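[retry 2/3] Major facilitator superfamily: previous attempt timed out, resubmitting with same input.
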Amino acid sequence: MNELIHPSPAPAVIVEGAAKRRRALFAGCGAHAIHDGLTDVIYVLLPVWQAQFAMSYAQIGLLRGAYAAMMAGFQLLASRAARRWGRKRLLVGGTLLAALAYLVAGYAGGLGVLLLALVMGGLGASTQHPLASSLITDAYEPGGGVKQALSQYNFAGDIGKTLVPGLVGLLLTVISWRASVMWVGVLAAVVAGWLWWMIPSTTSSVQAKMAKPVSGKGSAGGLRAMILTGTLDSAVRMGFLTFLPFLLQAKGAGTAGIGLALTMLFVGGAFGKLLCGYLGARFGMMKTVWLTEFTTATLIILALFLPYLWLMAVLPLLGLALNGTSSVLYGAVPDLAGEGRRDHAFALFYTGTIGGGALAPVLFGGLGDVTGIPVAVVSLAALLLLTLPLSWCVQKGLDSSSGKYQ
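[retry 2/3] Major facilitator superfamily: success.
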């Protein structure tokens, strides 16, 4: 009788559903890669712009801050707009706006136009995190594997951070910065067209036929604790990255050594994002967060005392733990948000993490000026330990929301 009421999906339906999930995952990963690449390529271009337009450091900070502020500040608006205009239109439109921003930057004759271009780029980038995350979550929830899919999405962002700035670095050796920037805009426009083709239609009959019953309505308290956990984690990560070159310099590292150290840290971080998402699905959010955050705090303090070669040896592990927590936290957001509020929840989460990452270098940099780098670094490690009790609060929210966190 039950089989008559709830028939099993036909093989064709299962195959079609699996194809749509893969399309959603590829689209979300592609969006994350291009947008993170567009965000981080600014670091490559800032010295070029400074030389071209004779800008002060304050003006350089204004450019970078304008992009970050627009990206962080309009994520909530993007999640609301998606309810009216559709997630697909907003995500593709945001990518096109980011592409247009780089085309405008290629024609910039001064600070004003460049600032306008980066404001446009930040506005376009604000659509990516909440909408792509929710796209993947909704696609994978019926068949399971949300947390693993989000870890792949998180990993894809680091791939973009590596490839796009690297591509521009190579282009700058053979063509002008204006042509290089415009080629980046063309690449983003091509990706936008690809996203329009790749993103599957919203909530198809296939998903409905395959969907498993969803219990629970989320947990507001757990979500607040999750956002605070992510904000602290991001703040410590950005604060430590600010101090690491100076720690290496004090241990005798030159420019090449610092560059190699950062590369090792970032490679470890990229794989940490992929690995820790799977660990979170296997062992649970709280256990994995306690492991990664305690490991990070311990290695941050050890970084003060280890000699240069030993520090270089542990940097991949430090990067793995330092960045890996974020994948575990992303994977828990859908469970805490509840049905129908995921775009909004992801927007809140990313606003907190990006905001924390932007403020930390300023606040802890000021602390370092007053007390010295060692005290500031120890303070970062101590701040990170606050995530341990917070993750317990998150776990309580998960348990009271949609059942056990698997």
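[retry 2/3] Major facilitator superfamily: Residues 1-6, 203-215 have pLDDT under 50 and may be disordered.
[retry 2/3] clearing retry counter.
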